[in-house]
Amino acid sequence: MSEDRKATVGRRDFLRKVGAGTLGAGATLATPLVGSAQADSETNDEKRKARYKETDHVKAFYRVNRYPAKGG
Question: What is the pLDDT of residues 20-60, one digit of tens each?
């Protein structure tokens, strides 16, 4: 029974180390991509302004996907 217990503990330790190694590798790769935190530069008025514009490519998307036309 002690042999089974040793094998189980060894397997668990192995999986823990593999998991920790994967996390460490991921953190190493992600570190250069992370920049310093910056505050939001938009004012409240800019955040609330309308951003949607019905351009030609948006109209084509609606037409191709058979969305009903606005106002008619």
Answer: 666 565 555 555 556 777 777 888 888 888 888 889 998 99
